[in-house]
Write a structure and sequence with these properties.
single chain, mainly alpha, 8 helices, 79% helix, flat
Length: 159
């Protein structure tokens, strides 16, 4: 069942992507996790605390980051197990957790900029998907940055 849900979610997300109106309204679950991790890091990871306490809090943060989404996902699956079209509803909800279409569009924008707009436009496009400053990157560096971001975000959003 889970494999079918994952497959349907991937197909729908690739075809439709994450709606812009929804992103503007509530953001994306990937950004929610980023905010949660930042929050937990600020609250639990104090440089002045002893290493043993920091390690304990790190384990607590890890448990929150892993268990909260797992419980939510399991609850959704159980909730829709007995509902007509529950598999489809679950797959549609799971679609919102992916980011492959957006990732494809951002990397494609970098490639298009390199083909037609020049290096400055390509640097601007790659700055939207990488954390580093692309101003000093040459053409090969922009390509590498886009490919690295593609691989990392594929791992985060799909795998």
């Amino acid at each position: 069942m889970s494999v079918l849900i994952a497959f349907l979610s991937l197909v729908v997300e690739f075809a439709l992507g994450y709606p812009d109106w929804l992103f503007r309204a509530i953001g994306h679950p990937v950004t929610w996790f980023g905010r949660l991790i930042s929050f937990l890091d600020r609250r639990l990871n104090r440089a002045t605390d002893p290493d043993a306490l920091r390690r304990k809090r790190g384990v607590q943060a890890l448990l929150v980051i892993v268990l909260v989404p797992a419980v939510i996902g399991l609850s959704v699956q159980i909730l829709f197990w007995f509902v007509p079209m529950g598999l489809v509803i679950t797959a549609l909800l799971a679609t919102s957790l992916l980011s492959q279409r957006s990732l494809y569009e951002h990397v494609e924008a970098v490639a298009d900029a390199l083909d037609t707009g020049g290096l400055a436009l390509a640097r601007l496009a790659v700055s939207r998907i990488v954390g580093r400053d692309p101003e000093t990157l040459d053409r090969a560096g922009v390509c590498r940055a886009a490919i690295e971001s593609l691989a990392e975000n594929f791992s985060d959003g799909i795998v």
